[in-house]
Amino acid sequence: MKNKLFLLILLSSWAVGAQSTWTADKAHSKIGFAVTHLLISEVDGNFDEFEISATAGDSFMDPSFEVSINTASVDTDNERRDGHLKSADFFDVEAHPTMTFKTTSVEKTGDNTFIMMGDLTMHGVTKPVTLAGKVNGVITDQRSQKLKAGLKLTGTLDRTEFGVGEASAAIGSEIDLTINLEMAQQ
User: Fold this and answer.
1) How many structural domains are present in the chain?
2) Which of 10, 59, 130, 147 has its CA 20 to 30 A from that of 40?
3) pLDDT tens column, 46-86
4) How far is residue 37 from each of residues 43, 76, 168, measured CA to CA in Å?
5) pTM for the complete prediction?
């Protein structure tokens, strides 16, 4: 009897901590950025093509992400600027067609907030990046009957540390990241 009780407790604790795979619902997700222009205004943009998967529990408070972004999909609503960003002056999309991010650790900071550390590889350079995360909620999708999690990740990086463009007063070095995700449990 004691062995059965122990086994039941062990299996229950394993199920509570179980991790599953989640993928981004691209129609409801966006990888955005903003940069200062001429020290007086801000230009924002996003990447239209990306793949995002995560491993997380049902609360999505412990996500581990793997992200791949097509650098040629950069979009700032200005074709000329986008062309320049794709050139060797910035992203050099022919030599570096993707940028990647992989979570290295997550630290819970509140009921629905966390700090995520990970390695970002951009322009052939890998550096650690820290993102603040907020889980907006987790629901059961009525159509699929699967869990969906909504969250927002924010952070800042210095583009020149990755060799993306030169330091200049015309274009700020500091890039603000805003990533809104709707993740679907698989």
Assistant:
1) 1
2) 130
3) 999 999 999 999 999 999 999 999 999 999 999 999 999 99
4) 7, 13, 10
5) 0.88
